[in-house]
Each structure stands twice: as C-alpha cells, then as structure tokens.
Amino acid sequence: MSPSSIIIFTFLILLISPISLSAIDAGDDDNLTAYEVIESFGFPKGILPIGVTGYELDKSTGRFKAFFNGTCSFSLEGAYDLRYKSTIGGIISKGRLTNLTGVSVKVFLFWLNIVEVYTSEDELGFSVGIASAGFPIDNFEMCPQCGCGMDCNGVSESDRGKQVRKDIANRFVSSL
Fold first, then answer.
1. pTM across the whole model
2. Where is the signal peptide (predicted)?
C-alpha cells in the first residue's frame, strides 16, 4: 500500500467513525421519552405536562423542542395559570433551559413568557425576564395534566401541595 493510500484510508476511517458513533447515540435517544430527556439534564419531569407527543434534541447545539397535540393550559390550585403552546422549545444544558419559547404564566392580568428554567441545588428557578422565582424541586415530581393541572377527576393535591402552589403564586407576585 502506498503512503498516499494509507493517508486516504486513515482519513476515511476517521471521517466515518464519528458519524457511526453519533448515529448510535441518536438511536439510543430515540428510545427515551421527552420526560426522560428532561431528567437526563437534571430537571424533574413535572416541568412538562402530561401529553407530550414527541420531541427533538440537537445534541450539538442543545436545541430542544417538545410537541403537544394542541395548546395546553391549566391552573394549579387557582394560584396561577400556565399555558403551553403546541410546540415549546429552548436550548437545554445540564441544569439550564434558556431561550425558552411557548410557555407563559399569568401574573395578575398579564401573561408573561417564561424565558428560562434553571436548577440550583434543591431549587428550580423560573425567569420571566423582569422577575424570577425559585421553588423546591420536589414540587415538580408529578406532571400536571392539560385542562386540570393537579386537580383532575375531583382528586386534588394534598394540603401541603395546595400551600406550595399558593406560595408559587406569591413568589412571582413579590418578585415583580
């Protein structure tokens, strides 16, 4: 084999290897749900409501999208209202979801876009740009359901959960 053939052969092996490895990695991700992907980045699954129909993740940029059959809105114990568009997205990394689009919270009479979600030790923080609020991360262990949040089929959260939801509303209000 000539030296130029060896160089070309080596170049082709190096070129093909990363493609094969990334194809294997992408295949592994196809088996994960959107909730599992969110958890793999350090977030609790409860930041997504029940009903995600699919997702996209670009590992090289962190661009993440989750899809629903339509818009999704719910109230959590009457304390605050959340609205998810049929497609939400952002850039995800370990413990941080930035440039978030498609998720809004009602504060007083105004709908404000949640633009960032981040983790800090045992807290989950939400930013609406002009204000942010942090909450215990274990408040998000369960996924809310579109239309009824955590109060579906006449079964509501425990008294502790009700108080947590009221505290959430008060934190956003006091941050403004």
1. 0.70
2. 1-23
